[in-house]
Each structure stands twice: as structure tokens, then as C-alpha cells.
Amino acid sequence: MSSDRSTLEKAARRARRALADGAGEDAAARADSLTVTDNRTGKTYELPISEGTVRALDLRQIKVEDDEFGLMSYDPAYMNTASCRSAITYIDGEAGVLQHRGYPIEQLCEKSSYLEVAYLLIYGALPTRAQLEHWVGEITIHTFVHENVRDFMKGFRYDASPMGMLVASVGALSTFYPDANQINDPEVRQIQIIRLLAKMPTLAAFAFRHNMGQPYVYPDNELSYAGNFLSMMYKMTELKYKPDPRLERALDVLFILHADHEQNASTSAVRSVGSTQVDPYTAIASGVAALYGPLHGGANEAALRMLARIGSVENIPEFLEGVKRGDERLMGFGHRVYKNYDPRARIIREHLDAVFEVRGKSPLLEVATELEKRALDDEYFTSRKLYPNVDFYSGLIYEALGLPVAMFPVMFAIGRTSGWIAQWLEMVQDSEQKIARPRQIYTGARDLDYVPIERR
Ligand code: CMC
Predict the structure, then answer these.
(1) How many structural domains comprise the chain?
(2) Is 134 a catalytic residue?
């Protein structure tokens, strides 16, 4: 989808061209509209084009009979429908660009921290030093969860999926904070935002420890956001867990990389559920639920399994031949939006070495590096604009951190929480938004007479 900025620029260019053609103001105005002829009636309509879009509701005036509903657009999977105007994240898929509130992801990963990026996404500007200190302090003192949350999580079966536990426990937070449903009160909203960011790593780490059959570890508020998460995940008998700064930094960068990606499936779920004016815990639980699906949060697992199956560099040519024959896909390659190198993949690749330095090198790195090189040398992949995406290397980092594959989408969810919150907040403050309620094309039977059971 084009960004606000690029569509506005294109619209301005078109208008300027029309003026330069000497056609005058009328033509410039006309340049930003779409003329549609309905061949059923021969009538012509003029639909305004704004920011590279026409309003779907403008189609409703197009009808054959006065009393009919009017024309709708049909767009399964929202392939070409903008559901909102948003100033949070800009993606240019052709150029491989990702920016949050205008700042390139490369600069944020190099110079910022996850909590600063969360602030930026949610409030729209980088914080001052005082604002950042206050923000980090507030999040740090809200990391504990109610003891009943812990007890509730303990009730899951010993082998429960950590992602399933996360969906349930994030949703359950709404029962601990019933006033969270006052979503129009900015002060009430603010405390839920803090709680969500603060407690998500705690819930995620509890789910992991549960799955490992290990005691839950309470937060350590003297550590950083990522450092505390590592402590809750890996602390054993030591009195104080000391996170390795290289792992702490790599994890913080992974959280930044996953922070937001505009209107993807889970964010659309959060906006859609949130549009009912439900509390943010429930809305964000729906985002976690959407991320649970293998097409969204699970591709890195598939990429890791693929690398393990290829096993060694000698097997790459045969594997690639199979992909080109259409036997299977090269997982971690290709993207609906990026038709160039996914900038997140490049950044992850850069941080792999630091993680391997601490945890020991994975033999699969050589396979991944060579596989990428050969695919990018191959006309099959280049002609289809298939490049590594964020999932090509993220599984390798998670594996090196000692995480089971079931934890991969949980890690994604921790990072994405800031984006979900930012998008939810933008949505509840957007006067154009209403309860999300798509239309349908009804294809079933009508006006049947009920048939008693003995006659069917
Ligand atoms: N390996 C081999 N061929 C591919 C691949 C791939 N990974 N991806 C696309 N193609 C081919 C596809 O067969 C088609 O070829 P042809 O034109 O000959 O029929 C062409 O490229 C276009 O593919 P498409 O399926 O129309 O593209 P899409 O935009 O619908 O699919 C995708 C995007 C991500 C689903 C797809 O590239 C894919 O399945 N990739 C592997 C899974 C993966 O890595 N998913 C993670 C995506 S990033 C997650 C995130 O951002 O959150």
C-alpha cells in the first residue's frame, strides 16, 4: 500500500503537471478525480481521488434503480483496501524501506532502544531525556503480575503451547483491571498502555518456564527491559542473573525489528476488535491470537526447519532445483509487500555474529548464508523479486538463545505489543473510525420453506 507521503506527493505531481500543461485550475482539480461510466445505465460519475484512493462509499451512488443498495467493492483479504489513515509506519516495499514515525529502521536499531521506539510509535515523537526516564521507570515498576495471574497460568497442562498461554493470559488481564474498558479516558488508557508493555515479557517468560517445567522467575527491576526478560527466562540458582550485554542488545534490537509493520493481519485484528470499544487487553489478545497462525508468526520456524533439513552446503543445489520445480518454497524468502531485500533481514544478519559469539556458532548459519547467496544469484528468484525476509535469520537467533520453536511467535508478540498499542490508540482517537463491519456478497439460498425433520 502506498504511504500517505508518497501518494500525496504523486497527487501533487499530477496536479502540477496538469497546470504546466496549461490546462488551468479546472484541469488541475479534475486531475484528482476518477470518471466512471456505468455501462448498465450509461450514467457517468465523478469520484474524488484523495491520497491515492477513492472512497468505497462513493461507489454507493452508482445504482441502476433508485431503491437499490448501490455498488460495493469486493476485496477478499483486503488486498487493495486501505482500512485507515495512519501516521505510524511507512513501508516502501519496492525500495525496501521501513520507517517508524519517519525514522528509518536502520537508525532506530543502531541508536535507539526498544522502549524508546515504543514511546515513538505510541506518542509520535522521540522522547526528551526526562520523558524517556519517566517512561522507562513507569514500565519497570509495573512488570509484576497479580499472584492470581501466576496461579491461573500454572493451571495449564505441562506441555501447553506458550503462545496459547499468552493469548489467554493477556486476555485475562482485563479481568484484573476492569476499569480498562473506559477507553475514552486518556488517564485510564495511559495506565493500561504501561501495564501491557510491562507485563507482556513477564507473561511470555512464565509461559516459557511452564513449558520447560521450571519455576517461574519474578521480574528483576534493576535490569533493562531485555535484561529482565533474559533473567525471567534463564535464571536458575544464582542469586542475581547477569545478562550478557551482547545478548541483551541483540534481543532489544529483535524487539525493535518486530515493533510495528503497519496493517498486517494481527494489527488489523487489534484494530477490528478494538473498534468495538472493548478494553485494550482483549483487543491485544486478539492480535496475539492472529500471530499464533503459521502464516503470520510461524514462518521463522518453517525457515529453521528447512535449514536443518538441507543440513549442509552440498545439498543446496538439489534443494533449490526442487524449489524451482515447484516442489516447495524457499522459506524466509519473498514478501507480499517487500519486492526488495527486507531491511529487517539485513539488520538481523548483522546481529547474528554477536549472539553466536556468546552462544557458539550454529552449523546452520553456513547453510543459510550460502543458500541466500545462491538464491540471489539465480534468475528464478531475482526475476520474481524474491529476497530474504525477516524470518530467514530470526529463527537462527532464537535457536541460539536456546528457545524452542514454540517460543518464536511469543518473542514476536513481545516486540509487536508496542505497535499494536500505537495502532489501537490511533484508532480509538480517529473520529472517522467506527465499529469494523465489512459487507458481504450473499451467495446462499433465499426464501426457503422450513422442512420438518421427518420429511428431509
Ligand atoms: N520460494 C519460491 N518461490 C516463491 C516464494 C518462495 N519463498 N515466494 C513466492 N514465490 C514465487 C511464487 O511461486 C510465484 O511464482 P510464479 O509467478 O511462477 O507463480 C511468485 O513467486 C509470486 O508469489 P506469490 O505467492 O504470488 O507472492 P505473495 O506475495 O502472494 O506471497 C509470501 C508472499 C510471503 C506468502 C511468499 O513469498 C512465501 O510463501 N514465502 C515463504 C514464506 C515466508 O517466508 N513467509 C514470511 C513472510 S514475512 C513475515 C512478516 O513480514 O511478518
Answers:
(1) 2
(2) no
